[in-house]
Design a protein that fits this description.
The chain has one helix and eight strands. The relative contact order is 0.13. The longest helix has 4 residues. Helix content is about 5%, strand content about 55%. The chain has an eight-stranded antiparallel beta sheet with strand order 1-2-3-4-5-6-7-8, with no helix packed on it. By secondary structure, it is mostly beta strands.
Length: about 150
């Protein structure tokens, strides 16, 4: 179990949409369990939190100052070198708007895998799909190479 806290300072240029022009902060709880279902080579992670955003400079009259977020992930260590994952991520709306893209909650499904090429090198492949159409990017692809040291 872990508690996570974040604070974002208004350092970006909101005129060019490189930031919101306001302070943001969040608090979340994250739970990871690698033991309960280990006989099935399964593990899971759950998280939930609350985000506070100040009005800032971008659509300040439409901003919702609080948004909830969470995720649930199930992983299957199919082989010693391959770990397959399914994850759901969601958040409540960030703005008061009739536009679905701004004013609705969002849920995404991510399917992926981590392949351990060596003891120190891992490759992640994943794609995500928006389950609530137009509330998040339609399809997102991930390719990452990680080096453990």
């Amino acid at each position: 179990l872990a508690a996570r806290f974040t604070l974002k300072a208004p350092t970006g240029d909101s005129d060019n949409l490189y930031g919101s022009g306001g302070w943001d902060g969040s608090a979340a709880l994250h739970w990871a369990d690698r033991q309960s279902w280990s006989r099935y080579d399964l593990s899971y992670e759950l998280s939930a939190g609350l985000l506070y955003t100040s009005n800032g400079d971008v659509l300040p009259d439409q901003r919702r100052n609080f948004a909830g977020f969470g995720s649930a992930m199930l992983a299957w260590q199919a082989l010693g070198w391959a770990n397959f994952k399914i994850q759901f991520d969601g958040n409540t709306a960030f703005y008061h708007s009739d536009l679905r893209e701004l004013g609705s909650s969002s849920v995404q499904l991510t399917l992926g895998a981590t392949f351990s090429a060596t003891r120190t090198l891992a490759i992640d492949l994943a794609f995500s799909e928006d389950l609530m159409v137009d509330a998040a990017p339609d399809v997102t692809l991930l390719l990452a190479m990680r080096l453990r040291y």
